[in-house]
Amino acid sequence: MRKRFVLLLFGLSIFLSSGVQAQCFLAFNEQNQPVTTFCVNETITFKDNSGRPNVTEFYDFDDRDGVVPDQPPRHVFHTPGTYTVTQLTGVGNLCRRTFVVKAAAPPSAPVLQKVTLQASSIQIQLQTTGVNDLVVERAATASGTFTAVKTLNSVASGQSQHTVEVPSLEGCYRVRVTNLCSGKEDIVSNTVCGQGLTVTAGDRRNDLTWGLNQSSGAVTGYQLLRGGQLYQTLPGTQTSFTDEQVACGRQYTYQLVAILQNGSQSASLPVQVETRGTTPPSAPLLVVGFDLQNRVVLETIVPDQETFKEQAIYRSQNGGNFSLISEKQPKNALDAMVGNLSAPVCYQVAYTDSCNLVSPRSVAACPAILKATLQADGGVQLTWNSYEGFPSGVGTQTLQLLDDQGNVYWSTQVTGQNYLDAKPQTKFQRLTYRLLSQAQNASYTSFSNTAVIDQSFQFHFPTAFTPNQDGLNDLFRPVGAPFASKFTLQVLNRWGQIIFESKDPQAGWDGMHNGKPAPPETYLYRMEAVDVNGKRITQKGTVTLIR
Prior knowledge:
Oligomer: single chain
Shape: elongated
Largest sheet: 8 strands, mixed
Strand content: over 45%
């Protein structure tokens, strides 16, 4: 309540303090001397100077956080700066005075840890041991005359960073401790000079040059950054570097950091350059294979230091010459017009980089072509030509059987160029095989085309069944794999009445009719089915129910 009352009276009393603020109250140091400027961590006593007897007084020592004069008249300021002190005496009697608090000398001189050049400013990193005002100074050379550039007020103890506008990036920098209680300004940091860097684009290379850093203390080495990441560490005597790990038409950003003997650093302005050239780029690696639609998929792998704009594709079939089949294609391209897969097919590509220079053609890449033949005994003979074009050859080959959705249902590792699937799966009428080739000592893979075999209906109906729930021949249903996309089974009695019907090959007749056991006798059955190729199949016969 008292604080609210004081705040309400503050505005009414401002005019009373004008013109007489020097007589309202005084500040005394530890030697009981009146002062208007004093040091941090010094006990200051404030006393009323109005001449009134028996004055009860309270103070607010910093109006930057609001004016609430409820403190006793003795105070210690811990941070340098300019402070407005407000006195309250009686009801509504407020008086304001301004005092300057100066810093004590730091235990040690500040350290200028790093100077980084920016577009029109520098960024400095400092390490300080006290709270002080610091003046940033600049000179043309390390031994030249330094002039003030900017004052940093109340820099906290510890590490800090500051951005300082400068008239020129060239030159040397240091900081001076100012606003000290001693009145002296002879505490200065080490000197760090700005680091220059020039980058010129050559023929598929970037040439970097710089002058030795002129900071006091020897340069122990340089760190070269590319794209903001450490790229090279260079000796302190080196003044040039050629970067050949570049791609034509690609932009690169370099920055050079001088490492000084005292551990300080000086970082140049980042320099961006676009690499040019007249030398063709290096040849690509081509990996080819088939997708599930038996289209050839071409994946072009360009060396890391190169750029890619477009490519031309060349094809050879059955050992013939390579001929151009398409141009201006992306890295991952398709050839849906490969046609007959009975003969080997091979591809080459040549790409154009960002400087419109064309690479040599890739090494020929030839996908494995898989063939499947149905044997008289129901087995499937598979043959293929091995993949060609992996840098170190083929490491492993895996034969796969795919389900109706193209997922791998079964696989086995194979060697050579043939394999006999002696007992094919009976789950699918259509058997879809493909070969996966894995590169030796690399992650490249390639799929062959899919080779398809359609199995014939492999089922029969029993001539009798015994529905006595003994687990043997309890149901009348097809035995084997009907491979039907559509299926209907009907059972008729001797009068031609349908007493059982099912559209599921696995759901057979259990010998019941209208909830009662059917009599043991001979029944007619008829089956209609459509296989995966749309072929209609019918079958009729008799079955004897035995009880």
